[in-house]
Design a protein that fits this description.
The chain is mainly beta. 12% of the residues lie in helices and 38% in strands. The longest helix is centred in the N-terminal third of the chain and has 21 residues, at 2-22.
Length: 181
């Protein structure tokens, strides 16, 4: 009887652990302390709660300007099969998923400063300025209650920058660039 109770407790604990892991964006339950996904976001993140504007990522650096983003707007990005994309600066694919997708986007940075690039998956994010990949300055999951899986901060200079996205599991990802406030 004691073994049976132990097994039931273990099963219940496993169910609780699995349910907390599966409560992610697109699922019914928002995180603890949140009334809904993307509710009550700070002002610079408010556009994240809106539907993303459709955009197709470029497959070559020469075409990146045709996939131009505006800072402070959410996008639903369609990426291309990794084998069909040539990056502005090639970086090693450490452990690409079997269905890897990539793409290039351009963004006009209005002023020097810290900016976040937020996405709905764990894909790899690089920013290229002046032909070099920038080092990130911070990482995080995004603000509380946001359906953001990953956000990466970069120090950007005013002008044009290229965003390189790689190692995405599938062709779709939502993305937003926003200034740090």
């Amino acid at each position: 009887m004691t073994m049976r109770i132990f097994a039931m407790v273990l099963l219940a604990a496993s169910c609780i652990a699995v349910s907390s892991v599966s409560a992610q964006p697109g699922r019914s339950a928002p995180p603890p302390g949140c009334s809904a996904w993307d509710a009550g976001l700070p002002s610079q993140w408010a556009p994240w709660a809106e539907k993303g504007a459709a955009i197709t990522a470029a497959s070559t650096p020469a075409d990146a300007a045709r996939a131009a983003l505006v800072v402070g707007k959410k996008y639903s990005v369609t990426l291309k099969a990794a084998k069909d994309v040539r990056m502005a600066v090639e970086t090693p694919d450490v452990d690409p998923p079997p269905n890897a997708h990539k793409g290039l986007l351009s963004v006009r940075v209005p002023s020097d400063g810290l900016y976040w690039v937020a996405v709905t998956s764990g894909l790899w994010i690089d920013i290229v300025e002046g032909g070099a990949v920038l080092e990130s300055t911070d990482h995080g999951p995004g603000p509380q209650c946001a359906s953001i899986a990953k956000s990466v901060q970069f120090m950007l200079t005013a002008g044009n920058a290229t965003i390189q996205l790689s190692d995405n599991r599938g062709s779709a990802v939502d993305l937003m660039v926003t200034p740090h406030k």
